């Protein structure tokens, strides 16, 4: 289809498409480091090899400029490209299939009009034979993929359904928060049960979330709108761009709807946890006491961390209480170690708030000692094994 043959778009449609493209993080997987937006060749590591996000600029030869709206819908709904070849599920079409035609068309309108065409050939996936045979994807789809738009659950409110539509569809939270089977498909029976992703852990978004204070609708909305909860952690690592490059574009009503949907999954009522026993106990455990500084981890914590993390009477926004948050309460210390090594940039967590990196200030053993103190003394949970080795491994992988 040539440019002249493309349908006309309204400015509302284009603006809607811009917001949805942000909420679907299309740019994250389709923009190369330092390169033009959506011009492709962003490498995605999978268990099977590297796959490159395609050039989805309107360049007719190397991008999707010659695609009709129908071809674009087929890619988003069925994971099939313009020539009819199966696309790899690294493109989360298993979620995008839930989107309405109106929403998919809006993204098409945005890409075709607002994005600069860039001539750049997308590299072939570095997946070894025979897994690189796209025809095998037909079998994968038969096993794990069900095409179909989101259907309202009539027993639930309109807001709940709006939240479910956004979470299950365009924002594809499950792509990171749901564990995958050996063939890379999300485990349908374990939706949002938590998963390893990009060398981080995406915690459970169900009642199994390890935070001491259960997540509630309003706390989800606050976290997704601002990058931080008050009684929960902050959006660091791969969750940073989900909030700051993605969800923040959505109107408040949509973030509220997402909170309502997720709050219902967790099943905890909205409440003010300030006076709760859990929070009060954690604050008490963080107060200096006569036995204070009895071990190395506690001493280091007092000098390196407490100035910014100590809360006297209540947990303040921007001063996370490390005793109650999932970073110290997950079975695995990975997220806590990442944050200690590399800090929290202005683009992660609360926008503009920075936590310094301790990569060059603290040794593996010292970071391990602080983690052990937070885990054993503050969260009062079973110790994490082999902490020194874990810190060393994460330190090495981040600089690769
Ligand atoms: C998690 C990463 C990821 C996200 C997020 C993502 N994509 Fe992709 N997309 C890919 C990968 C990887 C491919 C190439 C798949 C292949 O080669 O089989 C792809 C392919 C495509 C294609 C097919 C292009 C072609 O030339 O065959 C289209 C169209 C597309 N994506 C659109 C989108 C849109 C629109 C969004 C946002 C709503 C989006 N993608 C979000 C990873 C992603
Ligand atoms: C690209 C992968 C990715 C996507 C997509 C993603 N998340 Fe996350 N999420 C993570 C990671 C990794 C963390 C841990 C971040 C940290 O500890 O700083 C996280 C943390 C969270 C937390 C905090 C959990 C806790 O106990 O501290 C919430 C809530 C959350 N995500 C909700 C969502 C929602 C809702 C969506 C979809 C709108 C979503 N996430 C999409 C990777 C992702
Ligand atoms: C200069 C102040 C400062 C220092 C020192 C500091 N932090 Fe932070 N920390 C912050 C800020 C600010 C945030 C992010 C808050 C936000 O974005 O809302 C943060 C966030 C975190 C988080 C993520 C939030 C959560 O609860 O999951 C962890 C974990 C953390 N810090 C641990 C530590 C540890 C351990 C130390 C000591 C090694 C430390 N911090 C030292 C300021 C600091």
UniProtKB/TrEMBL annotation:
<dbReference type="InterPro" id="IPR008168">
    <property type="entry name" value="Cyt_C_IC"/>
</dbReference>
<feature type="binding site" description="covalent">
    <location>
        <position position="173"/>
    </location>
    <ligand>
        <name>heme c 2</name>
    </ligand>
</feature>
<dbReference type="GO" id="GO:0020037">
    <property type="term" value="F:heme binding"/>
</dbReference>
<protein>
    <submittedName>
        <fullName>Cytochrome c</fullName>
    </submittedName>
</protein>
<keyword id="KW-0479">Metal-binding</keyword>
<dbReference type="InterPro" id="IPR009056">
    <property type="entry name" value="Cyt_c-like_dom"/>
</dbReference>
<feature type="binding site" description="covalent">
    <location>
        <position position="308"/>
    </location>
    <ligand>
        <name>heme c 3</name>
    </ligand>
</feature>
<feature type="binding site" description="axial binding residue">
    <location>
        <position position="177"/>
    </location>
    <ligand>
        <name>heme c 2</name>
    </ligand>
</feature>
<keyword id="KW-0813">Transport</keyword>
<dbReference type="InterPro" id="IPR036909">
    <property type="entry name" value="Cyt_c-like_dom_sf"/>
</dbReference>
<keyword id="KW-0679">Respiratory chain</keyword>
<feature type="binding site" description="covalent">
    <location>
        <position position="176"/>
    </location>
    <ligand>
        <name>heme c 2</name>
    </ligand>
</feature>
<keyword id="KW-0677">Repeat</keyword>
<dbReference type="InterPro" id="IPR014353">
    <property type="entry name" value="Membr-bd_ADH_cyt_c"/>
</dbReference>
<dbReference type="GO" id="GO:0009055">
    <property type="term" value="F:electron transfer activity"/>
</dbReference>
<feature type="domain" description="Cytochrome c">
    <location>
        <begin position="292"/>
        <end position="378"/>
    </location>
</feature>
<feature type="binding site" description="covalent">
    <location>
        <position position="305"/>
    </location>
    <ligand>
        <name>heme c 3</name>
    </ligand>
</feature>
<feature type="binding site" description="covalent">
    <location>
        <position position="26"/>
    </location>
    <ligand>
        <name>heme c 1</name>
    </ligand>
</feature>
<dbReference type="Pfam" id="PF13442">
    <property type="entry name" value="Cytochrome_CBB3"/>
</dbReference>
<keyword id="KW-0349">Heme</keyword>
<feature type="binding site" description="axial binding residue">
    <location>
        <position position="309"/>
    </location>
    <ligand>
        <name>heme c 3</name>
    </ligand>
</feature>
<keyword id="KW-0472">Membrane</keyword>
<dbReference type="InterPro" id="IPR051459">
    <property type="entry name" value="Cytochrome_c-type_DH"/>
</dbReference>
<keyword id="KW-0732">Signal</keyword>
<dbReference type="GO" id="GO:0016614">
    <property type="term" value="F:oxidoreductase activity, acting on CH-OH group of donors"/>
</dbReference>
<keyword id="KW-0249">Electron transport</keyword>
<keyword id="KW-0408">Iron</keyword>
<feature type="domain" description="Cytochrome c">
    <location>
        <begin position="12"/>
        <end position="115"/>
    </location>
</feature>
<keyword id="KW-1003">Cell membrane</keyword>
<dbReference type="GO" id="GO:0005506">
    <property type="term" value="F:iron ion binding"/>
</dbReference>
<feature type="binding site" description="axial binding residue">
    <location>
        <position position="30"/>
    </location>
    <ligand>
        <name>heme c 1</name>
    </ligand>
</feature>
<dbReference type="GO" id="GO:0005886">
    <property type="term" value="C:plasma membrane"/>
</dbReference>
<feature type="binding site" description="covalent">
    <location>
        <position position="29"/>
    </location>
    <ligand>
        <name>heme c 1</name>
    </ligand>
</feature>
<feature type="domain" description="Cytochrome c">
    <location>
        <begin position="158"/>
        <end position="266"/>
    </location>
</feature>
């Amino acid at each position: 289809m040539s440019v002249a043959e493309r349908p006309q778009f309204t400015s509302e449609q284009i603006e809607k498409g811009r917001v949805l493209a942000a909420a679907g993080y299309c740019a994250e997987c389709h923009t190369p480091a330092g390169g033009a937006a959506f011009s492709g060749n962003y490498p995605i590591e999978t268990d099977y090899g590297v796959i490159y996000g395609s050039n989805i600029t309107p360049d007719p030869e190397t991008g999707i400029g010659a695609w009709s709206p129908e071809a674009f819908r087929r890619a988003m709904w069925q994971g099939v490209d313009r020539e009819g070849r199966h696309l790899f599920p690294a493109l989360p079409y298993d979620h995008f299939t839930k989107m309405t035609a109106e929403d998919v068309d809006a993204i098409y309108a945005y890409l075709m009009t607002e994005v600069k065409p860039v001539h750049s050939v997308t590299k072939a996936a570095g997946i070894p034979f025979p897994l690189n045979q796209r025809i095998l994807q037909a079998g994968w789809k038969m096993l794990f993929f069900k095409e179909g738009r989101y259907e309202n659950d009539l027993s639930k409110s309109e807001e709940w359904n709006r939240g479910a539509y956004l979470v299950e569809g365009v924002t594809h939270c499950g792509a990171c928060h749901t564990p995958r089977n050996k063939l890379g498909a999300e485990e349908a029976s374990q939706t949002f049960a938590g998963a390893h992703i990009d060398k981080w852990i995406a915690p459970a978004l169900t009642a199994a979330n390890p935070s001491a204070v259960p997540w509630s609708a309003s706390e989800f909305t606050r976290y997704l709108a601002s990058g931080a909860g008050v009684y929960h952690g902050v959006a660091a690592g791969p969750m940073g761009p989900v909030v700051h490059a993605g969800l923040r574009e959505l109107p408040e009503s949509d973030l509220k709807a997402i909170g309502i949907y997720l709050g219902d999954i967790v099943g905890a009522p909205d409440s003010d946890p300030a006076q709760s026993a859990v929070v009060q106990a954690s604050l008490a455990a963080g107060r200096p006491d006569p036995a204070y500084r009895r071990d190395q981890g506690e001493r280091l914590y007092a000098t390196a961390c407490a100035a910014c993390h100590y809360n006297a009477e209540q947990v303040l926004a921007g001063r996370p209480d490390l005793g109650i948050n999932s970073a110290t309460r997950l079975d695995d210390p990975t997220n806590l170690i990442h944050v200690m090594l590399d800090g929290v940039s202005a683009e992660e967590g609360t926008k503009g708030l920075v936590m310094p990196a301790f990569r060059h200030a603290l040794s593996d053993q010292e970071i391990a000692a602080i983690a052990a103190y937070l885990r054993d003394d503050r969260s009062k949970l079973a110790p994490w094994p082999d902490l020194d080795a874990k810190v060393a491994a994460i330190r090495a992988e981040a600089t690769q």
